[in-house]
Amino acid sequence: MTDKPARAPSLTVEDRRAMLVDAVTPLLTQFGAAVTTKQIAERAGIAEGTIFRAFGSKEELIQAAVDRQLDPEPFRQKLRAVDIALPLDERVRSIVVLMRERFTTVFTLMAALGLLGKPHPHDPRREFTEILALALAPDLARLNFSGERSAQIIRMVSLVASMPLMHLGAAFDDDEITALILYGIAGLPGPSDNSSR
Questions:
Q1: Tens-place pLDDT, residues 28-49
Q2: CA dist 142 to 22, 128, 145, 163, Å?
Q3: How far from the centroid of its chain's Cα atoms is residue 190's Cα?
Q4: Which of 13, 79, 126, 192 has a CA positioned 20 to 30 A from the CA of residue 22?
Q5: What's residue 18's pLDDT?
């Protein structure tokens, strides 16, 4: 008599759903909504039919993955965990890293699912950056970044400050945005802070 391989312990419905969401999320960034149940099953290491025992449809699974990525609580927990004993520059950098990871993940997923619209055939950002860099050219020696990099910073901060959903309370006015771009939130960096730029 041969020994049968031990069967993996069965998962609860919630555990199975969580496992499938884990499996589908990277596939969504790669294939968007065109991901197949076969690809999902292969990634999860399960039979295709198992997907439908946990979710009523592929669309329901995709929505669960989107809902998890949009859930702000895990992100809030990461922000709360930033060590307040760190020096200011390290604390701010930690916050920036977390914010960028969050926004990159969410926007990559939304773009893959076609929720952000189709990309423009001619990317206008390059031309905007060049125009702004030319406007800054007379003062390049005063800048902590190259003209092109400074132009990107101006564009980025101005764009985000113009999005009503991005600010709580009063919107930033033009003078506040200008001061933020010119002086940052902690004053001008010293000469040693400029070396890596």
A1: 999 999 999 999 999 999 999 9
A2: 48, 21, 9, 29
A3: 30
A4: 79
A5: 95
